[in-house]
Amino acid sequence: MDDTDFPAEFDRVLFTEKQIAARVKELAAQVDEDYAGEDLLLVGVLKGAMMIMADLSRELKTPAEIDWMAVSSYGSGVTSSGVVRILKDLDISIEGRNVLIVEDVLDSGLTLRWLVRSLQARQPKTLRLLTLLRKPEAVRNQLDVAYVGFDIDNEFVVGYGMDHNEKFRNMGNIGVLNS
Ligand code: PRP
What pTM, to 2 d.p., does this model score? Predict the structure, then answer.
């Protein structure tokens, strides 16, 4: 798919593949600078983080291990309730490790607030968050995020790992759905 093409369900493209790739490169450079010579474990939150994890990890010069969690928030399914259930836990112990959680989008930030608390209890050496996209409510909820790709408006975004009813995850662009 060309950078400017998008399906009929899209209102518009918010970020093209090229814009995303350029920003991911910048984020990777920041992470490399901060973790130079350090141990690094990337923790992705399934499924949305698949693309940002694949691209970010390949841009990093710092050797990194990768592990995954799957979580589900109880609630309506449209907005997070902040009460989270672990569907798939980490395979690797994070005790004493430098952990960087990698996310596609922070909406309310409640899932990640819960996840940070939960992982902090496992005594990592450091625990930080990276998200490609951040919506205003996550800013209002004062979630501490070390690396943010783009701050965006409160719109329903899909593509680049993000879905609507499991569709659009395999698109390279990020788009806003027709309302
Ligand atoms: C999205 C996203 C975050 C969470 C953010 O995942 O990947 O994990 O929602 O929401 P919050 O900031 O309001 O807590 P989703 O539940 O859509 O699952 P998916 O990654 O499998 O698509």
Answer: 0.93
Give the CATH number of the domain where residue 63 resides.
3.40.50.2020
Helix residue ranges, H only, 48-135: 50-59, 110-120
Closest CA to ligand 1's atom 20: 48
163 lines ligand 1 (CB under 6 A): yes
Question: Is the shortest distance between the CB of 137 and ligand 1 below 6 Å?
Answer: no
Residue 46 belongs to domain spanning: 18-153
- Give CA–CA dist 153/14, Å, rounded: 10
pLDDT digits (tens, 9 = 90+) for 60-89: 999 999 999 999 876 555 456 667 899 999
- Count of domains in the chain? 1
Spatial separation of the C-alpha atoms in residues 101 and 44, rounded to whole Å: 6
Q: Are strands 98-106 and 41-46 parallel, antiparallel or unpaired?
A: parallel
